[in-house]
Amino acid sequence: MSSSKGFFQEFREFAIKGSVVDLAVGVIIGAAFGKIVDSMVKDIIMPLVNFLVGGSVDFTNKFLVLSAPEGYTGPQTYADLTRAGATVLAWGNFVTILINFILLAFIIFLMVKAINSARRRQEAEPAPAKPVPPPEDVALLREIRDLLKR
Predict the structure, then answer these.
(1) Helical (H) or strand (E) element with 135
(2) Counts for the chain of helices (H) and strands (E), in that order
(3) Residue 127 has pLDDT above 80, yes or no
(4) Confidence of residue 40 (pLDDT cuts 50, 70, 90)
(5) CA 80/CA 82 separation, integer angstroms
(6) Distance from C-alpha of 112 to C-alpha of 118, rounded to nearest angstrom
(7) According to DSSP H, which parts of 54-135 are helical?
(8) Comparing 46 with 92, which gets the higher pLDDT?
(9) Residue (of 82, 47, 53) closest to 68 by Cα position
């Protein structure tokens, strides 16, 4: 039993270390941030691209059928074709994910740049000056004054 207690104690110390907790927080925030970027691409950027192009450009539904199942006459959508066993090159989905990545990398770059700039400003600020000790004769006079008061 004492070895298991030591094991659990060691595990607890590992799990509550700052770096492990920071990593967990980073992963959770990163996942949420990824959803924000996905939404930004799907709900903001792609509609703007569609508007500028003058039509509906939905990259997620762009694909190339490499081989369809023999005799398949069903719907020609990506989901239906893959369910039917077709070999489909989903280049549109790749383009969408690539746009997500580029946006995410750009936003992270801006965040890191802002943090580094703030650190440089903080390092450039002069440290508060330590109070200069009074000259020795003034300190001696104060000591004499304090002794006389007592």
Answers:
(1) none
(2) 6, 2
(3) no
(4) confident
(5) 6
(6) 10
(7) 78-83, 91-124
(8) 92
(9) 82
d(CA 102, CA 95): 10
Per-residue pLDDT averaged across 70-91, rounded? 87
Q: Where are the chain's structural domains?
A: 8-54, 58-124
Q: What is the largest CA-CA distance in the chain?
A: 112
Residues 16-28, mean pLDDT to the nearest whole number: 80
Structure tokens at 135: 């000259």
Rg of the chain on CA atoms, in Å: 32
| DSSP H or E run through 61 | none
Structure tokens at 30: 């990163």
Instruction: Give yes or no for a contact between 91 and 98, defined as CB atoms under 8 angstroms apart.
Output: no
Q: Are 78 and 112 in contact (CB under 8 A)?
A: no
**Exposed/middle/buried for residue 16 (C-beta within 10 Å: 0-12, 13-18, 19+):** exposed
∠ Cα 15 17 19 (to 5°): 105
